[in-house]
Please model this.
Amino acid sequence: MKQLRTLAFALTAISLQAVASDWPQFRGPDSKGVSPDASIPAKPKIDWTAPLPGRGLASPIIVGEKVFVTCSSGPKQERLHLICFNAADGAKTWERQLRATGRTMSHPKTSIAACTPCSDGQRVFALWSCNDLAAFDLDGNLLWTRGLTVDYQNASNSLGMASSPIVIGETLVTVIENDSESYSLGIDVKTGRNLWKIDRPKAANWTSPVPWRADAKSPPIVILQSSKGLLAVDPTTGSRLWEYTEGASTTSSSVVAAGVIYSPSNGITALTPRSDGAAPDQLWRAKQITPATISPIILGDRLFSINSAGVIATADIKTGDSKWKLRLTGPFSGSPVGAGQRLVVVSEKGLVQVVDVAAPEGAVLGKLQLLLKQENKELVLSTPALSGKHIFIRADNALWRLGE
Amino acid sequence: MDHTAVHIPPRFPPTMKTFLAIIPFLAFTSLHAALDEPVKALTAIEREGRGNEAAGAAWKQVVAAGPAALPAVLAATGTSGPVADNWLRLAGDAIVDAAIRAKQPLPLAELESFLKDTTHAAAARQLAFDLLGQADAARANAIEPSLIADPVQDLRRGAVQRLIAEAKTKSGDDAKAAYARALDAVRDEDQTRTIADELKKLGVNVDLPRHFGFLMKWNVIGPFDNTDRKGFDGVFPPEEKISLDTEYDGKGRKVKWQPFESRDEYGKLDFNKPLGMQKEVTAYAVTTFDSPSERAAELRLGCKNGWKVWLNGEFLFGRDEYHRGQQMDQYKLPCRLKKGANTVLVKCCQNEQKEEWTVEWEFQLRVCDAAGTAILAAK
Model:
């Protein structure tokens, strides 16, 4: 019996360790863009490269030893792929393919595999721009699938959709916002059925929801962002909790740290939600920080944001006061991710740049040029993922793991 | 026809060809009956995920049955809509994947036979071809040229690409003949463009509007109001009655129908030409399509403005998205044509945006079958 207990404890410890290393959704744990226990190599090198069967700018996600990536292929991007790789060596573990049931038109620069999948540790949920949504167990067994444009026929964007779903508790939260039929769904992770559906502003929106909680003991809520501002929603019921109505970006998503929401609204606006249902209190607003399409992140006591010129700006998270600026080699579509005192960001042309944010004026520690297929005009448009000592990056033709 | 001479890259990588080549088909009749209920559960899913719980359990049963379940999976595909088809497709995908890993025989001859029977549903035949390719790429590649006149648009594509590749190796009259064969078969816009461009270089002009079935001759009327985008939901006289001789109150002036013919090779009807460049306005276009028979068809529309389409007074679909992009066949509207005159009415709304890329106020509409083959007017 004692041996069994020891084994159970050991297995639990292994499991917890795997969970701690996970990068389960767009911008990782709690959508912060930061891994609490990963480390970013100063001078990254390619560990392995795995070919991909189709296009995509959805980030990879990591659950235990598995890396999940979505792609789209076919003359009209009508073939939708979810692929599971072994994180250790890049070997393909399994692949599932379905066909788009919604519209697959998009701007040529983006693709139908634009929404990063997410996982609750037991299941992986894949959403594509055509609003096809499918849930699998980690071994590739289908749990359920939905065609959200079949359900709601005018929900599409001819430029393409990109909002990435997140899981909060037992609810998968999706944001399907466009000019014609906009809504957000809370979906039961086990059955794929609607727990709630709320109408959203009729306007194109590519931002992703983020979780927020008052403190470690409080249940998380979900923050939905749009051109109107922010809406806080109870993920279990879909109830509206509070609203911020001063507008926000439709491309760059908010980030949360220590209970404060840093939103791409009129530059960057730091907001402290209240418990009485009133609009959140404004902590500060920094109009000079212009995140363009890129989402900001928080490392330690500073916020980092990259503008359309490829300049990374820093601000004190308590005051919004500017610190140093550093010009990187852009342009960028993917957002930076961080661990410890380092950020990593990848330019559209595949230049990986590691930034030491502890240096007095910031410093680029290392660069690595990924080999992109020029004949396909391949670009890196995705945000990297972090796990352990590794960086995972995808483009249209390949998935890379970088290490020391 | 020797396709190896033109070095066409295989559509499927050559895998599994040794042990999956010719395998005796498994006896599956009793199993087929046992799978009736689970397969039925996969096809019984409804809107908003209703039926997912039963389908989730059924999916496991179907996949656990292995390759013998494939005939039932194929038979059910195309019977209950595209979401059910994905449940079935993913079951087929998982079955073939597991069989390959386990070096288990697959009913390849039956898959091929199913594919070749054009009485089966389009989605089912597409799945049969994909599963065949997944299991035995060489076999699928060998079949592909025979699909050149297939009633399923997607199944033709590979065969057409081979003809294009073959034509590129020829010159003069031989090239013309080869591209002409490709043109007869082609249905996809990008491939058609390639063929038409090559033929043009050879001195042959392709009548693209006729090839695609674009409607070119219309009567147009406007502008009506679309201030604050309210014209999309607003009902103006053409939606109530088509009377080509009547004058109406439009936006700021009297308006009446006027004939307008598109000269665009992709059938674009640009309202800016007959009505002038305006903002926050709505216009209508109406035409008569003389169908040679009573039949199923598709009206396929491309439009970057707010739009609505009616056929013979019946509303088909509408969408209030502005300036997010336009492409041919952007929207497919299944419909039923009656024999003889059919009235097609299009509403097209322009919004308030002032940017250079928001000038377009246009649509393109064609009449075709589900394979994209043009249905030409009887007169």
Summary: The longest strand of chain A covers residues 66-73. Residues 344 and 354 of chain A are 4 Å apart (CA to CA). Residues 2-20 of chain A form the longest helix (19 residues). The two ends of chain A are 42 Å apart (CA to CA).
